[in-house]
């Protein structure tokens, strides 16, 4: 695997165990990335880490500068990106703390800067997005997951919502009818931008809660944070295994 970038989401604003050797704040044509790019060694391999919501977790999903984040990773010459994302579970088998390596996405977001091909009509490029995630990287993640005793679902449809509010029960029911298995707020346009820049990009989603209307109680941030603590530990183990 070529040098890897990890984009950390909610619950992963720092990559515990990353021995940081350098931090770099890149200027991009699209503005500032969410955080410096942290260069370092993780499980003996050189990786770059970026905190999607900023190092203080202060940038909400609809305000993340996805273009600057992806552009800055590409500018470092990196080809491979694992994006970690907290999600709600829609599919009844996708339960809190479990991981999902989605293979498809449905985009319900709006008003986000979602393309690098926005301005110059001479250069408009319609990327193929039939398979939105890098299959090779997904397979590596799934192979690395095999020995663990926590559940890693080998496929799933990620529904990307606008946020920052959580969904209504009816919205989740509609998403379920659409075929969504998990719901999160940051999966798009990140995946599409990565494809526009020809990065090999896959998502490791960690289920933080049953989606709206699918649990017995209302969703609270306290519940999400508590669940993510354990779920992120599973993510760390998987990242370690795939890097090794
Ligand atoms: N919905 C959207 N995004 C999320 C959720 C959810 O239920 N849980 C964690 N991120």
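Q: What amino acid sequence fits the structure above?
A:
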């Amino acid at each position: 695997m070529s040098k890897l970038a990890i984009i950390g989401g909610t619950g992963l604003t720092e990559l515990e165990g990353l021995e940081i050797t350098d931090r770099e704040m890149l200027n991009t044509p699209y503005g500032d990335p969410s955080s410096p790019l942290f260069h370092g060694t993780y499980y003996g391999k050189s990786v770059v880490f970026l905190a999607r919501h900023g190092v203080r977790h202060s940038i909400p999903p609809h305000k993340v500068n996805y273009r600057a984040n992806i552009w800055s990773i590409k500018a470092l010459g990196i080809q491979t990106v694992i994006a970690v994302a907290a999600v709600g579970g829609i599919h009844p088998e996708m339960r809190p703390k479990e991981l999902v390596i989605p293979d498809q996405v449905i985009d319900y977001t709006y008003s986000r800067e979602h393309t690098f091909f926005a301005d110059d009509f001479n250069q408009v490029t319609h990327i193929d997005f039939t398979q939105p995630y890098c299959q090779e990287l997904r397979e590596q993640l799934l192979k690395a997951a095999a020995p663990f005793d926590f559940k890693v679902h080998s496929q799933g449809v990620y529904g990307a919502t606008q946020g920052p509010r959580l969904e209504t029960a009816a919205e989740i029911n509609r998403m379920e009818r659409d075929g969504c298995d998990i719901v999160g707020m940051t999966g798009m346009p990140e995946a599409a931008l990565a494809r526009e820049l020809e990065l090999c990009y896959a998502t490791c989603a960690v289920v933080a809660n049953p989606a709206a209307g699918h649990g017995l109680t209302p969703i609270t941030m306290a519940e999400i944070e508590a669940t993510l603590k354990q779920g992120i530990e599973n993510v760390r183990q998987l990242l370690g295994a795939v890097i090794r």
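Q: And what stands out in the fold?
A: Residues 4-119+128-243 form a domain with the Rossmann fold fold (CATH 3.40.50.1580).
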